[in-house]
Amino acid sequence: MASMGQLWSNTGSTLATLMFTYTIFRRWFPHVGDHLEPFFQRLFSRFYPYIQIKFHEYSGEHFKRSEIYSGIQSYLSKDSSLRAKKLKANTTKGSKSLVLSMDDREEITDEFEGVTVWWESKKMRTTRPSFSFYPAADEKRYYMLKFHRRDREVIIERYLEHVAKEGKMIEMKNRERKLYSNTPGQSHRNQTKWSHVTFEHPATFDTLAMEEKKKEEIKNDLVKFSKSKDYYKKIGKAWKRGYLLFGPPGTGKSTMIAAMANFLEYDVYDLELTTVMDNTQLRSLLIETSTKSIIVIEDIDCSLNLTGQRKKKEEEEDGDEKKMKDEGEKKESKVTLSGLLNFIDGLWSACGGERIIVFTTNFVDKLDPALIRKGRMDKHIEMSYCGYEAFKVLAKNYLDVEESEHFDEIKRLLEVEEIKMTPADVGENLLPKSEGEEAETCLKRLVEALKEEKEEAKRRVDEDAKQKKEEEEEKKRRKVKKEEMKANEEKKKKIEENGEEEH
Q1: Pick from 178-192, 257-271, 353-367, 374-388: least confident
Q2: Is there a contact between 97 and 174 (Cβ–Cβ < 8 Å)?
Q3: Residue 258's CB: how many other CB atoms inside 10 A?
Q4: Is 306:344 a contact under the CB 8 Å cutoff?
Q5: Range 125-139 average pLDDT
Q6: Tens-digit pLDDT profile for residues 69-106
Q7: Measuring CA to CA, how many Å separate 10 from each of 2, 15, 46, 326?
């Protein structure tokens, strides 16, 4: 009696012989073969224990590259480079590195929850009509996934979703990040649109001039946000977060934004409100932003008049000036405070997800409280003058110095004397001005600059006090003059009344 192995071997050989015979038969008798194909497919599937799924590179009427194909290519790239014998390297648009993938007719295995699957890269040649008298060959590539029929449920319900998710993450990690800006369009009714360049800002939290404790707090907040998709859905809020950066010019607000973008690997959208004509265009720009992005509005207090003081200012203007301003405002942005608030946390803000909105300002007191309340600007970060810890970061960045005899003096000037100097000014003094300039020379220059700033601050205080005193004296003189004029008027009036009585 034949063993079970021999039985399956004989069955496989018989099926192979039938398929070969059928292929030859169909080649010579194609019309008859079309009628017999369903029969052979049913016969083959009854004994063949594996299921196959094809994922074509291009699909649809416009031959758009399939997203699932790109995802599979990215997913398999991590294993292809290690296990496949034949590889091909491609440069994908928007990717910052080469993508290694299996060459045609290569096969690798993958495991998921104890299930083994086989991936194979294939291509088929077809003919298509062309402008030539001869048909042109066309190659269509696809991935073939093969798995045992007993694992159908695992593959269909979980594995394919796992591949798509992992592939998307790899694509996002390898993508070339972009810096977008909105520019007025030259067509389409002057609609503004996004244009972009490659985002290459080198700033990181390691190079950011700020206290270490404060940097860790911000980093933890960013990580928590990026991993809270399900939590935001649970509490019924759009997956977004607002940051308000405020402080004097030169304190590193723009550098902080770049560090945040590099830390999370997000794109940056630099929104210039003055080029947005109205609330409708503002909403359109929001819809066109991608996930994993930071939307920035710098100097929000200067971008538009959003403080609610417009009416008061107009009442104070003369008639001619008001008329000229009204004519000019017809060409200016008509974005309103209400429109901006809807942009931040209205219904349209929930389109997409994983977005951070950042406002910067030099004068936080000028902003409307409704614009910066919690829920819109969730985290307020003060970018202050340079402290000693921030100085040490800058000294390491600029001079690669961690200790020096000048450090104690600088610490005294910054902490005890409380001299106010921005990180930008500190960095400028630490920057070597020639090829051979030593670190000690740069540190000494900073010490001198801090002492000069101390004297300058003292001079400004004296000038402010002097100016205030002069203003008070001027105010007193005006008051005395006003009282004298009033007394003269009363005296003149009394003389006139006495003259009338004599008549």
Answers
A1: 178-192
A2: yes
A3: 22
A4: no
A5: 52
A6: 888 888 888 766 666 667 777 666 656 666 677 777 78
A7: 10, 9, 15, 93
CA distance 441 to 432: 9
Cα-to-chain-centroid distance, residue 34: 55
Query: CA-to-CA distance for 234 and 461, rounded, in angstroms?
Result: 54
**C-alpha of 186 from chain center:** 26
- Cα distances from 317 to residues 313, 323, 327, 490, in angstroms, run 7, 9, 14, 34
Closest CA to 360 of 256, 273, 246: 246
Position 20: which residue type? F
Number of Cβ within 10 Å of residue 109's Cβ equals: 11
Extended beta strands in 202-246, E state: 240-246
- CA-based angle 202:206:208, to the nearest 5? 75
Sequence-distant (6+) residues with CB within 8 A of 444 are: 406
Q: What share of the chain in percent tops pLDDT 70?
A: 75
Closest by Cα among 389, 420, 429 to 210: 389
How many Cα atoms occupy the beta-carbon half-sphere of 183 within 13 Å? 10
Contact (CB, 8 A) for 145 and 52: yes
- Beta strands at 240-246 and 355-361: parallel, antiparallel or unpaired: parallel
The DSSP string of 23-43 is HHHHHH-HHHHHHHHHHHHHH
Q: How far apart are CA 362 and CA 245, in angstroms?
A: 9
Residues forming beta bridges with residue 270, ordered by sequence position:
181, 296
- Round to whole Å and give the CA distance between 338 and 34: 66
C-alpha–C-alpha distance, residues 177 and 198, integer Å: 6
Q: Is the pLDDT of residue 349 over 60?
A: yes
Beta bridge partners of 242: 357
Conformation bin of residue 106: beta by default, left when phi > 0, alpha when psi is -120 to 50: beta
From 115, 150, 123, 139, select the one nearest 55 (Cα to Cα): 123
Contact 474, 482 (CB under 8 A): no
- 338 touches 281 (CB < 8 A): no
466: Cβ–Cβ under 8 A, 6 or more apart, which residues?
A: none
